[in-house]
Design brief:
The chain is of the alpha/beta class. The protein has seven helices and 17 strands. Strands 1, 2, 3, 4, 5, 6 and 17 form a seven-stranded mixed β-sheet that branches. A five-stranded parallel β-sheet has the order 8-15-9-10-11. The chain has a three-stranded antiparallel β-sheet with strand order 12-13-14, with no helix packed on it. Helix 1 packs parallel to helix 2, helix 1 runs parallel beside helix 7 and helix 4 packs parallel to helix 5. The protein starts with a strand and ends with a helix. Bound molecules: flavin-adenine dinucleotide. Flavin-adenine dinucleotide (FAD) binds next to helix 1, strand 2, helix 3 and helix 7.
Amino acid sequence: MNDSIVIGAGAAGLSAGLTLARARRDTLIIDAGAQSNLAATGIGGLLGHDRRPPAEYYAAGRAELAAYPSIEIRHGEAVSVTRGEDDVFTVALADGRHERARTLILATGMEYRHPRLPGLGERWGTSVFHCPFCHGWEMRDRPMGVLATSAVGVHGALNLRAWTRTITLLTNGAELTGAQRDLLSAGGVAWDPRPIAALDGPGTSLETVTFHDGDPLPVTALLVKAVLYQRSPLATGLGVTLTPPDEMLSVEAITVDPMCRTAIPGLFAAGDAATSVPPSMAAAVASGYLAGASAAVRIAAGY
Ligand SMILES: Cc1cc2nc3c(=O)[nH]c(=O)nc-3n(C[C@H](O)[C@H](O)[C@H](O)COP(=O)(O)OP(=O)(O)OC[C@H]3O[C@@H](n4cnc5c(N)ncnc54)[C@H](O)[C@@H]3O)c2cc1C
């Protein structure tokens, strides 16, 4: 039996694994290999790795873990998890195998749901992005759009002024209130309520947003609101609670304490799956470390 199983080998899961490895705990990391930022060309804002391609970062993390004998990273998918009366977790994998551990860390990331428009999906993570702190620098001084319909869009558009002065809030058919229009005018931000037909440009770059009336608007970077949802029912199946939807991100995060413990003894959660603040690589690394340490402490205490 393993001391710990970590589901997910993104920034959070690898960080948890490193902490457990250094605590000499037998740990199996199961990962399906779909880290949420793989579409991006570089990681923005992670100290020590700024602008590094995500795949390169994950390969480096795995290489660091390979130096420790008590860690196995296995490609696979966890399809269900149960917790027995003996407090042991059993993880069923898609390949039919079952693995057991005294502690379990969920580092499964989140599904980022972005608006659906023709031409948007293929630009997600490059010219279309959800986080200005991650990708605003690379898009600086270009004509930018913000696609959002609520007050969040107004704040997002005003916030973008740190990166460019040419900003249009696109509400895709929704009308703004008078107060919202006044705020935008005072901030020097344009808005356009016309319904959008498509995003256009060569490859993954963006040149124009085309409205249903056929008019093109020059926009070379588009900030969109993404809403984060649990990727799988693994967490809820174990009986954890999720935080209520958040106004900014509507995060459906697993409720954890400051040491990444859930209310279920032996079950920890880290990274996007358990964050109710704006998601980031730095936060995922930090919470993965805490979850790994918490699991190691529980194991050492003999539970
Ligand atoms: C397009 C995009 C760009 C971003 N750019 C930046 C940036 O520049 N800077 C920044 O700080 N943040 C950025 N972020 C946010 C950042 O990527 C996330 O906060 C971070 O990746 C979260 O790490 P994580 O380990 O929690 O989850 P993830 O990186 O999503 O990793 C979760 C892993 O768990 C695996 N998994 C899930 N379920 C299972 C299962 N049932 N069985 C096995 N494996 C499973 C997945 O396959 C995946 O490999 C970006 C996000 C997106 C979507």
